[in-house]
Amino acid sequence: MRSRIIFAVLLFLIGTGARAQIYDPVTWEFGYEKTGNNQFELIFTATIEKGSHIYSIDIPEGGPIPTSFSFDTVPSYTLTGKPFEVTRPREMFDEAFGFRIKTFSDTAEFRQKITSESEAFTVNGTVNFMSCNNTTCSPPKDVEFSINIGGKEGSRVSASSGVTYAEVPMQKGGLLRFFLISLLAGFAGILTPCVFPMIPMTVAFFSQGSENRTRSIIKAAIFGLSIVLIFSLLGIIVSLTSAGAGFANTLSTNWIPNLLFFILFVVFAISFFGAFEIVLPNKWVTGADSRVDRGGLIASFFMGLTTVIVSFSCTGPIIGVLLVAAASGDVLRPTIGMFGFGLAFALPFTVFALFPSVMSRLPRSGGWLNSVKVVLGFIMLAFSLKFLMTIDSVYSLKILSRDVYLAIWIVLFSLLGFYLMGKIKFAHDNDLKHIGVFRLFLIIAVFSFVVYLIPGLFGAPLTGLSALLPSSRSSGFSLVRPQIQNMPAQAPGFEIVPLSSQCSEPRFYDIFDMPLGLTGYFDFKQGLECSKEKGKPVLLDFKGHACANCKVMEAKVWSNPEVLRRLRDDFVIISLYVDDRTQLPENEWFTSSLDGKVKKTIGKVNEDLEITRFRTNALPLYVITDNEGNPLNTPMPTNLNINEYSKWLDEGAAAYRSKSLN
Question: What is the DSSP string of 615-643?
């Protein structure tokens, strides 16, 4: 008896907390404005919680659910035209869908013009929309409205109150990663032929005051801080002129800046190959150098300025690459990037100025410095293709396919390997009499990378480079092709499991398909029956046609061979689309106990199932259950950590085996 009471109390607590788990970040306000004689504009205002967004009215086919409006047909008013957007949407390239998508954050206003000869009337209708953040998407939601014209100027209607899931701290990790990359770029700048030889000259300048050790340390510190300050100021200028996120979105999607960046990268690469040098005006160098001759503490600053200017012929392309990457992201990235670059660049100069005796341990200048430039040139040339890839993907040109992209990379890195072996020489290179140990390991690394790339031509996913390569859907050929009739083409490189391996023909298989050659079901009850027959646990996959995070999880986590093996061998997968609008037979309709509405479509039935059983509407959501649909461990939302996801799968399978034995 006591256990039943405790269970009832737990159910009550879970029920009262259910609403806090529903992802519902949008509230709506409806009103109107009289614009002329018998003319009105209906006003629809969405307030969106920070970190979330909704989609524009204008969304390409095959993308997420657009915001749309429907109106009851009554004789008291006439619609004039279609609903239109007042707030300007942000347009960005969505990797999951492969094209540009317009979204609204914070707030969005839509309007619809109407005409009416009545003095007082009511407009009823529904707004349909979908909301997402970095980790979660909601199923499409309908919000009904009723606007009284001639009376009260609109009324606020809340789509729901609730707490969104915590955002993944993507930005912080991204900035830290970019800072570390900038540090490495600064150290790379030191190892160039117009910078490395300057170190002894700089040390000699500070050694002049060696009789006063304290003053020498102060001068060296000012010198180092000056270099960091100069580079940081350059980053601050870019940050202040980048016009925020809108500018970043333009840079990342528009063909003009992407084409310019491609040309810049190619020019920088050609410069590093020795065709020409990028230099600043001589009068800048002369002016800064003349201030150094005056001595004193201020001379340390101008010594730093002279070092920056003179080194620009080698560091300029590296700085340009960093600023291009920085301007395409957060507004702080240029400042953080240039601070990191300046810090790494100044560190060796400052350390050697403080401790001149360390100079004796430095390697001598030589042909290896030019080799550093050439290696950087090949890398810049390879990464320049990313900008062409963006143009090709965003505008659906279908010219730079995955195969062509990989072929160019294979050629470039093969040429880099031959260059390191001394088989290719540029004008400023010395004869390579022998190959040192470091160069040998570098050659091995380069050719190993080339070998790694080659299977990508034949369908291998190359998940480690997925962010830098075109989508596998653009691949022109693959050694592995689907052989099963009536089954859609799957991702290249994965085995197709015959339908005969399943308990019965999956219901709705003509509407939906499983990713990566997997088999499964699209109906909850049918999947449970098969799990009983096979004696396997169930993996419920709540997903959506328009769910970007669902596509990312499948591409980056499910595609992992170990995860894929577990999915294929250890579970009966039931994929439940919550945004599908296919209407079910009338005998399968039911009235929801949650909102009292009749659920008629596949999507609404699955959405109701997710909220009723698991108290959330997050997409994607993965749940491991027994043969009755009872959870065996904690449900898993978006998680790109393959090890954690694999561990979670193993935990659920072990819980099923343990329960079966009992």
Answer: S---BSEEEEE-TTS-BSS--B-S---HH
pLDDT 10s digits, 259-290: 887 887 788 788 878 777 655 556 655 655 55
Question: Is 75 a residue whose pLDDT tops 50?
Answer: yes
- Of residues 260 and 70, more confidence is placed in 70
Distance CA 53, CA 132 (A): 6
Cβ–Cβ contacts within 10 Å for residue 376, how many? 23
Q: What is the CA radius of gyration of the chain?
A: 31
Please, what is the Cα angle at 565 between 486 and 458, to 5 degrees? 65
Please state, in angstroms and rounded to a whole number, the distance separating the CA atoms of residues 407 and 384: 14
Residues 87, 482: Cα–Cα separation, whole Å = 46
Chain-centroid distance, C-alpha 573? 27
Q: Which residues contact 647 (CB under 8 A, 6 or more apart)?
A: none
- Could you give the CA distance from residue 589 to residue 592 in angstroms, rounded to a whole number? 10
Task: Judge contact between 617 and 23, C-beta under 8 A.
Answer: yes
Cβ proximity of 150 and 120 under 8 Å: yes
Q: How far apart are CA 263 and CA 256, in angstroms?
A: 11
**CB distance 372 to 387 below 8 Å:** no
Q: What is the pTM of this model?
A: 0.44
The Cα 40–Cα 236 span in angstroms is: 47
Whether residue 191 is predicted with pLDDT greater than 80 in this model: the reply is no
Question: What tokens does 159 get?
Answer: 């789509």
Q: Residue 33 forms beta bridges with which residues? A: 41
- Measured from the Cβ of residue 491, the count of other Cβ atoms closer than 10 Å reads 19
Using CA atoms, how far apart are residues 91 and 108, in angstroms rounded to an integer? Answer: 14
Burial of 55 (0-12, 13-18, 19+ CB in 10 A): buried
Which tens digits make up the pLDDT trace of 126-164?
A: 998 988 877 677 777 888 888 888 754 433 333 333 322
